[in-house]
Amino acid sequence: MNTKLETIDYNLYYGNFHALADISVKFPEKQVTALIGPSGSGKSTFLRTFNRMNDLIAGTKYTGEVLIDGIDLFKIDPVALRQNIGMVFQKPNPFPKSIFENVAYGPRVTGMHDHKKLEEIVESSLRSAALWDEVKDDLGKSGLALSGGQQQRLCIARALAVHPTVILMDEPAASLDPIATLKIEDLIHSLSVNYTIVIVTHNMQQAGRVSDYTAFFYTDETRTGRLIEFGETQTIFTNPKDKRTEDYITGRFG
Amino acid sequence: MIGNARGNEQKMSGRMIADKTVKYILFISAILSIVIVLAIAFFIFRESVQAWTEIGFTDILFGGIWRPGQDQYGILAMIVGSVAVTVGAIVLGVPLAIGSAIFLGEIAPKWVQAILRPAVQLLAGIPSVVYGLFGMVVLVPIIRQINVPGNSGYGLLAASIVLAVMILPTITSIAEDAIRAVPDSYRSGSLALGATRWQTITQVVLPAGKSGIIAAIILGIGRALGETMAMIMVIGNSVIFPKPLNANPLTLFLSQARTLTGNIAVEISYATGVHESALFATGVVLFALIIVVNVSARWLVNRQSSIQTTRQ
Amino acid sequence: MINQNIQSIQHKDSDIFRNLKVRNTSQNIWFSIMWLAGLITLIVLLLVVGYVIIQGGKAINWEFLTTPPRGGLSGEGGISTTLGTTLFLVVLTLLIATPLGVGAAIYLIEYGGEQALTSPVMRALIAIANFAVETLAGIPSIIFGLFGYALFVSALQLGWSLLSASLAGACLVLPTIIRTTEEALLTVPDDYRRGSLALGATKWQTLHKVVLPAAVPGIITGIILSVGRIISETAVFFVTLGGSARMPTSIMDGGRTLALHLYYLAMDTNAFDKAMGTGAVLVIMIILINLSINIVSNRLTAKIRGGK
Fold first, then answer.
1. Which of B46, B103, B170, C200 is 20 to 30 A from A60, alpha carbon to alpha carbon?
2. Which of C1, C2, C20 sits opposite A80 (nearest CB)?
3. How many CB atoms lie within 10 A of CB B95?
4. What is the pLDDT of residues B269-286, one digit of tens each?
């Protein structure tokens, strides 16, 4: 299996604070990888490394390497990188624009202005995000008028519209009800055929249900996040090598 | 024991009475603002009645000649003067103010913000007569250098520049507030899609903050229409329709003018009878103009938000 | 399409790469323009403040500050009586406006919500009161002047006097005091109120023992802001205070504030140097006022952070 994303001895600092330490890991292509671990263990920070959203915070420094398709990610223009790596946030964040404009936003800012093509992209993205049937007659409606679950699927459609190869998801179902959560999980499944997906989740069952691989993050009093264990989800959940992973999965702390 | 309980009761009711009394006193101060607004409307209007009835509505509003000595009280030239100088100030001041607001809210590094923000605050606090004096001493002599017959330096150009500087801090700080009020999740959403920071500003942040930014501009227009002393000091105060001084239409801006506010301030201290009443009528027109501006702003903002149909 | 990989973006001939260059260039150009806008704003300030203080500073000396204006076309004399008049007017205006403004704010924030529930009339009144404060804040100062002239100077026959001027001035600064006090009250956490009410304190006891002390820095900010507005204001006092350069001895006397004096010097005399000197005094006062507002509001934020 090809490796899509890779880090080698990756360290991240916010000013003097050592946020992530010595992370070396390879995420395989077109698979779902779950990042799990207690709050503050650096999962989300690690996730945002891949589309360089951490760059936006003043005072971040890093050492080590982060590769996408074998290329040093920090040598790529961050704007170009983000066209190739979509992101879905913890709280649905559609723009205060119509559904159509939300999905067409990415293609538009990256230079697509042919309305016919935009329509095609909007439809196919909404279909891929399993939202088309619910909104097809109402594309002019504000994205903010949708329910929470629909908003999150709209955000997924919006991310798909720029044709990324990787989708980063930061607890995408954290603010949704159980039924909306199930829909998102089904969607993640079907998207993994075409996309490499990395998902941060606090929910063990969810990690078990949706992911092929799991990375367990942990932190001690220093509050520096470390990768403790990485492997196939099956193995991590049934036969963890590290005591801390086992304790976390069986719910002894977290 | 019983006596004690009764004592407590009395103390209790004393506290309750104090509580009630205070409430009524506070209520009266809260209502006072309504009283003042009504009183202002009432007195300004009452004093202007004589002018409206004796001179006539259309003769005041559309009359081109203001000659109190000859009982001519047309204020159209002043309306044109006020509007012209306000438009001039908006054209010069708004782009700079919105640019500064975007710069402060989205682009400037922290240390630059720490210098620029107090600077904007200080600009807002400088008395208008100081701006007027600066205009008289610095701007007017520079403008006088433009070699056009009849150009005194005093006029629309000097007044527009002074006014633009005066509305700059108002618009900048309110527009910046509106920009900073846009949730960060919109910005990260846009950046994560591969938009540049500038695209994010123009296509997400500014549209989302539009109503606040429009409100800022409207407030600026209100301030511009209402400015008095600085205008008197630099606009020349001739009661004439602003017109180009020669064949070049741009020389219109070198023309002198008088604003509605200036008309009131310059003449009120010695006016009597109809003349005085006509000045109050000028005040009514100014007031109406500002209300029109504010209402249309509110309408614009509401229309905007109904398009966005946000749901909380 | 979906299988575009990262190399295609890196490739110099790709559409994506070209589009990216265009977008980054456009961002650089626009960011430069925004920097320029910020810079121009700063330069405007330095120009106005710098010019007035440097040119005006030449006229300022002990004699200028301590002798009264002597009038005449050459604008002889100093500014002592105008300083005194300004001080009188500030104190008198605030004595009127502060209790009313603070009281109104307390009512609108602390009682308004519950009183609005008691009857539709109350609800309407409170809504109208809020609207009235907003309206007052938007009325141009010359209108306050006209109003003061019509009501206080003429109808009530108070004449051109400190009293007329301070009453009109109080109307002008009332919305400022109300708004800043309201903001200060809103930052006081509700837990403070619940805690005190739960101990059996009445609403007023809760307010003046718990809520108001916490809101004091905000209220002071409002008062300092108002001081600045009164010092800067000219139009209102131009038509209510007369303009006599003598020192007022009672609140029924007229007078001339610093800002008014500057106006008279600039318009009726050729003493631009003295006008500039007066302007410099005004600007220095405003700078001091802004500094003290920043100190007070920093203390307020520190207090709120400390309270949490």
1. B103
2. C20
3. 13
4. 888 889 999 999 999 999
The pair of structure tokens assigned to A195 is 């996309």
Choose among B186, B199, B308: nearest Cβ to A93: B186
Query: Within an 8 Å CB–CB cutoff, is residue A165 touching chain C?
Result: yes
- Residue B211 and residue B68 share a domain: yes
Give tens-digit pLDDT for A197-249: 999 998 888 888 899 999 999 988 888 999 999 999 999 888 888 888 888 88
Question: Cβ B192–A145 below 8 Å, yes or no?
Answer: no
User: Residues B70, B149: one domain?
Assistant: yes
Q: What is the mean pLDDT of chain B?
A: 88
Q: Which structural domain range is residue B46 located in?
A: 2-54
Q: Reduced to 3 states, what is the DSSP secondary structure of residue A52?
A: coil
Tell me what pLDDT residue B166 has. Answer: 95
Final residue of a domain: which of B16, B33, B54? Answer: B54
Look at chain A and count its residues.
254
Min distance B283 CA to chain A CA atoms (Å): 41
| CA end-to-end distance (rounded Å), chain B | 57
Q: Are residues B91 and B20 in the same domain?
A: no
CATH topology of domain C66-307: MetI-like fold (1.10.3720)
> B189 and A142: CB-CB below 8 Å?
no
The predicted-structure confidence for C165-222, as pLDDT tens digits, reads as follows 999 999 999 999 999 999 889 888 888 888 888 888 888 888 888 888 888 888 898 8
What single DSSP character describes residue C69?
E
- Give the domain CATH number at A48: 3.40.50.300
A254: in domain: no
The reply to whether B43 and B91 lie within a common domain is no
Q: Do C139 and B112 touch (CB under 8 A)?
A: no
Residue B264 sits in the same domain as residue B287: yes
**pLDDT 10s digits, B17-70:** 888 888 888 999 999 999 999 999 999 999 999 999 998 888 888 988 888 888
Same domain, B50 and B77: no
Do C228 and B40 count as a contact with CB atoms less than 8 A apart? no
* C-beta atoms of C42 and B115 within 8 A: yes
Q: Which residue in chain A is spatially nearest to C27 when comparing CA positions?
A: A79
CA atoms of C239 and B40, how far apart (whole Å): 15
Whose tokens are 């400190």? That residue is C162
Query: How many distinct structural domains can be found in chain A?
Result: 1
Are the Cβ atoms of A82 and B191 closer than 8 angstroms?
yes
Whether B172 and B40 map to the same domain: the answer is no
B169 with B124, same domain?
yes
Q: In the complex, which subunits touch C with 3 or more CB pairs below 8 angstroms?
A: A, B
CB of A80 less than 8 A from some CB of C = yes
Please name which of C261, C220, C209, C299 lies closest in space to residue C76, comparing C-alpha atoms. Answer: C261
Question: Is C28 near chain A, with CB under 8 Å?
Answer: no
Given A69, A79, A194, which is nearest C6 (Cβ)? Answer: A69
ipTM of model: 0.91
Encode pLDDT of B100-111 as tens digits. Answer: 999 999 999 999
Tokens at residue B226, please?
Answer: 């209402």
Residue B305 touches chain A, beta carbons under 8 Å? no
Mutation site for A-interface testing, chosen from B193, B198, B206, B211 by largest number of A Cβ within 10 Å? B193
CA-CA distance, B221 to C71, in Å (whole number)? Answer: 37
Question: pLDDT by residue (tens digit) across B257-270?
Answer: 999 999 999 898 88
Domain limits for position A231: 3-249
B125 touches chain C (CB under 8 A): yes
Residue of B nearest to C44 (CA): B165
